[in-house]
Amino acid sequence: MKSRWHGRNQLAQNLLAYAGPLTRDQHELYREIVENARLAVGVHWVQLTQYVPDTGDVRQLAISGFHLPRMRRAARAFSRLMGGMQLLDVTANVSENAFVHGLYAEGLEIEGRERDVTGQRVPRVVVNLAESVGMRWMMGFPLKAGGQVRGSLNFHSAKPLTSRQRIVARAMTRQVELLFENAELSQDLAQSVQDLRAAQTQLMLEEDRIKSELAMELHGRVQTRLLILWRRLNRVIASMDPDDPQRGPLEAIAENLDQIRDVDVRGVSHRLAPPILAAGLYPSLLFLGSLYYPEMDVTVTTDPILDPREYPDLPPEVRFPLYRIVEEALANAYHHGHAKHAGVHWAFSADHLTLTVRDDGAGMSAEAAGEGLGLVGMRTRAQYLGGTFAIQPMREGGCEVSVSLPGLDAWKEMESGD
Ligand SMILES: Nc1ncnc2c1ncn2[C@@H]1O[C@H](COP(=O)(O)OP(=O)(O)OP(=O)(O)O)[C@@H](O)[C@H]1O
Ligand SMILES: [Mg+2]
Q1: Higher model confidence: residue 21 or residue 162?
Q2: Which pLDDT score, from 0 to 100, does residue 181 have?
Q3: Mean pLDDT computed over every residue of the chain
Q4: Does pLDDT of 7 surpass 90?
Q5: How far is the CA of 357 from the centre of ligand 2 (A)?
Q6: Residue 333 belongs to a domain with what CATH number?
Q7: Per-residue model confidence (pLDDT) at position 418
Q8: Do 143 and 252 reside in the same domain of the chain?
Q9: Are residues 373 and 242 located together in one domain of the fold?
Q10: Ligand 1 centroid to 408 CA: how many Å?
C-alpha cells in the first residue's frame, strides 16, 4: 500500500509541476479521481483541470464518463464539429471570462449555466451539443495546494447541484487537495532529508580529514620535537656530575617528558588515525582488532586468504572511511553487545568488495533500532563510497554489520584517474 501511495504522490507532484504530456499512470490516476467524483456526486460529467498561474492557462487533465455511450457519442460529435480536436485538447485562459477568472485567479467556487461559463469562445453548436447530453449547468471548485490554486474539479449536470450534492462535491475536492498537499509535503521532506544527508556527509568527511591531519601533526611534528627535547635533556644529564643534586629532579623531568610524548601525544594521534593506516587496510584492521584484546577477541579474515604482506591496496580515500566503519562496528559490539568475540571479514575481488563485522554479543533489540551517530556515520561513509550498508541481528545471537562496495578495479581506476 505504501508504494501505491508513493506512486500517487509522484503523480500528483507532476500535476503540481505542470508536466508535459501525461503518462499512462497519470491518466489512470486522474481518471480515477474524476470517475470517483462523478459517482459520489451523481452527475453526468466531471472535469479535472490544471491551472498555471504564470501564464493564466488552464488545461484539462481528465474527464469522466467517457465509457457512457451518450458521452462517447458527444465526444465524437465534438471532434467532428471542431475539426478533429479532442475534448481533452481544450485549453482556456483565465482572462477569458469572469467565471473562469473567479475560479482560478481568485480561488472561488463558481456556478452557472454551461453557456455562460464557457463564454463566447466555444462555438454555439458545441454548447448546444453539451446541453443536448444533459450538461446545462456547471459548478467548479478550486483545488488549492500550498495556498495556491492548482486546478479545479468541475461538475457538469442537467440542473444545479442540490445542497447534499454540494457537500459531497466539496468533500471530494478536499480529498484531491489533500492528495496534492501530501505530495508537496513529501517532496519538501524528501528534499530536506537529501540536504541534511549531504551536509552530514560533508561534515563527516571533513571530520575524517581534520582527524587525519591532526594525527599527522601530533605524530610527526609534535612528537618529534618532544623527542628532540628529551634527547637534549638526556645529554645535559649525562654531562652532569654524578653527585649533582639537580640530577635527580632533571631525570624525573626527562622521564615525564618521555611519558607525555609516548602515552599522551602518540596515544592521541593513534586514536585519531593510526599511522598503520598508511600501510594499508588489512594491517590496520589487525591493529584495530588487537586494541580490544583480551576483553574481546577479534579475528580478521579475508577471502581470498592473504599473506599479510600481499594484501591489495586501496587508495587512502577508501581505506580511511572503511577503517572508520570497522572501528565503529567494533566499538558498538564491545559497548552495546558486550561481545566476547568479533570477526572482521574482508572479501574482495576485481568487481566487488565486502566488509563484514559479526559479534557474539547481545544483539540489537527492537527498541534500540534507532540510529545514533555511529550507524549514521557508517551508512554515510558506505554511501559516499558508492556502496551500501546494513546492520542486522543474527539468528544465533549478536549483530552483523555489512558494507558492500565496488571492487578493486573501481578503486584502481580512481587512483590512476587522480
Ligand atoms: N553490535 C551491536 N550490538 C548491540 N547493539 C548494537 C550494536 N550496534 C548498534 N547497536 C544498537 O544500535 C544503537 C545505535 O548505534 P550507534 O552506533 O548509531 O549509536 P550509539 O553507539 O548509541 O552512539 P554513538 O553515536 O556514540 O555511536 C546503539 O545504541 C545500540 O543500541
Ligand atoms: Mg556507536
Answers
A1: 162
A2: 81
A3: 86
A4: no
A5: 14
A6: 3.30.565.10
A7: 44
A8: no
A9: no
A10: 30
* 240 and 287 housed in the same domain: no
Q: How many CA atoms lie within 13 A of 118 on its CB side?
A: 21
Give φ, ψ of 195 to 5 degrees.
-60, -45
CB 303 within 8 A of CB 310: no
Residue 203: C-alpha distances to residues 196, 302, 316 (Å): 10, 31, 18
Report the pocket of ligand 1 as residue ranges, CB < 6 Å: 332-333, 336-337, 359, 361-364, 368, 371-375, 399
Q: Answer yes or no: do 333 and 394 share one domain.
A: yes
Range of the domain at 284: 275-417
Please check whether residues 103 and 206 belong to one and the same domain. Answer: no
Domain count for the chain: 3
* Lowest-pLDDT choice from 74-88, 132-146, 251-265, 360-374: 360-374
Last residue of a domain, one of 185, 215, 250: 185
pLDDT band at 370 (very low <50, low <70, confident <90, very high): low
DSSP 285-349: HHHHHHTTTTTSEEEEEEES---TT-PPP--HHHHHHHHHHHHHHHHHHHHTS--SEEEEEEEE-
Q: Would you say how long the chain is, in residues? A: 418
Lowest mean pLDDT among 127-141, 265-279, 354-368: 265-279
Cβ neighbours of residue 405 closer than 8 Å, sequence gap 6 or more: 318, 322, 352, 353, 354, 355, 382, 385, 386, 387
Question: Does one domain contain both 412 and 288?
Answer: yes
Over residues 222-251, mean pLDDT = 92
Comparing 55 with 275, which gets the higher pLDDT? Answer: 55
The answer to whether the CB of 181 falls within 8 A of the CB of 143 is no
Backbone angles phi, psi at 348, to 5 degrees: -145, 150
Tell how far the Cα of 275 is from the centroid of ligand 1, in angstroms.
27
| Residue 318 CB coordination number (10 Å) | 24
Last residue of a domain, one of 185, 207, 239: 185
Check residue 15 and give its pLDDT.
Answer: 53
Measured from the Cα of 399, ligand 1's closest atom is 1
